[in-house]
Amino acid sequence: MQKPASYLVWGILTTLFCCLPFGIVSIVFAAKVDGAFASGDYAGAQAASQNAKRWAIISAVVAVVSWIIGVFFAVVIGVSLPDTTTY
To answer: Which domain holds residue 67?
Structure first.
C-alpha cells in the first residue's frame, strides 16, 4: 500500500500566503496522514489526505476572492473620492 500525499507543504503555503484559518485546518489534516498510515489506518490516511487537499484549495480560493473584492472596493473608493489636488 502506498502512502497518500500529505499536502503539508500546500497547507503551510496557504496558511502563510492565503487564508490563515483554513490553512491551519489543512495543516492539521496533513499531519494526520502520516500517523494514520503508520498505524495501519489506510482509509483514514486517504481521508485525511483528501481533506488536507480540500482545505488548502478552499484557503487559496478564499484568498483570491478576498483579493478581488479588496481591489474592487479600493478602485471604487478611489474613484468616488473627490479630487482635492490643487496646482
So the answer is: 8-80
